[in-house]
């Protein structure tokens, strides 16, 4: 069983005694900054010149500085820019301005695990990674609850890195729910595997193959959309509430029997072998290298794959059908229709 931390295991005054610079004010950055501030922590936000996020942070009353100036003031620097830009921001603006002995905190282990960032020996290097998107991290905190966090220490220069990590986790509300002790390696490898094999890659491909199979067999795309995409949410909600068992309990006996006899035909043992190959490429750094090399070249492969995905017929069908369902939240449509991920 994993080692767990809760509010009583952490001392909030440690982080309250630090000057914290949060670099980036996106999904995680805005949630961490606001939760820290509301926990009585001295926070400033570091953003690039001309940043789109600056007005949002200032509207919340936060002090916004350049990355360099925010880092110069801080004894804890929280790196919450997108993973693919972290090493450039670190090399150009963080490392040259870092106060001696200042600690570094990450929300994901990618740049440390794959050596894109190599911190000085004198810095504590810690991770507090919420297991949910930033808007949930903020909303739960405001409601007096929290989103569980993974907590890790890669480098304990001060001898106090764990106490600092737990104090930070408490300040963003994570220890109200619970913190799980992990390592940068475990967090990074499992996070990449989960999103590639199951959550994003696996689920998207399963939905598209199901839709294509029905449409190619002559069924109407609108009907195929409901069966293969829309209803997935109902199934996943049941799994989240009560595991696979609750899903099987809730569906009809016909559906449950079909689950047992056809699930292993569709997702056969070769799929597990493919998953093992995906995991191997994560562990040996091949995936990280492919992603970062492509990003460094201006992301040609990424952009091509994104355009190809957006052109799949299931998307056009879905856009029309969602208009029929007033309860489906399409508030964030504009964000992704523009292709901003
Ligand atoms: P976002 O893409 O939401 O954050 C973007 C922010 O970084 C914006 O404020 C952006 O400014 C700023 N930024 C971009 N480039 C630079 C730069 N060169 N210099 C300074 N600031 C810059 O990131 P996420 O919150 O999704 O991810 C942050 C970290 O958290 C990552 O390590 C990620 O893996 C991790 N994480 C993310 C989760 C999530 O749910 N999103 C969950 C758990 C961990 P501008 O507005 O100007 O573009
Ligand atoms: Mg991830
Ligand atoms: Mg059905």
From TrEMBL:
Active-site residues (renumbered): 108
Gene name, Swiss-Prot/TrEMBL: ilvC
UniProt: substrate binding residues: 252
GO MF term (any one): NADP binding
Entry-linked HAMAP family: IlvC (MF_00435)
BP term (GO), one: isoleucine biosynthetic process
Organism: Phycicoccus elongatus Lp2
Protein's UniProt keywords contain Amino-acid biosynthesis: yes
Record's catalysed reaction(s): (2R,3R)-2,3-dihydroxy-3-methylpentanoate + NADP(+) = (S)-2-ethyl-2-hydroxy-3-oxobutanoate + NADPH + H(+); (2R)-2,3-dihydroxy-3-methylbutanoate + NADP(+) = (2S)-2-acetolactate + NADPH + H(+)
PANTHER family in the cross-refs: KETOL-ACID REDUCTOISOMERASE, MITOCHONDRIAL (PTHR21371)
Residue intervals of the KARI C-terminal knotted domain: 183-328
Pfam families: KARI_C, KARI_N
The protein's name: Ketol-acid reductoisomerase (NADP(+))
The protein's required cofactors: Mg(2+)
PROSITE patterns: KARI_C, KARI_N
Protein residues bound to Mg(2+) 2: 191, 227, 231
Annotated function: Involved in the biosynthesis of branched-chain amino acids (BCAA). Catalyzes an alkyl-migration followed by a ketol-acid reduction of (S)-2-acetolactate (S2AL) to yield (R)-2,3-dihydroxy-isovalerate. In the isomerase reaction, S2AL is rearranged via a Mg-dependent methyl migration to produce 3-hydroxy-3-methyl-2-ketobutyrate (HMKB). In the reductase reaction, this 2-ketoacid undergoes a metal-dependent reduction by NADPH to yield (R)-2,3-dihydroxy-isovalerate.
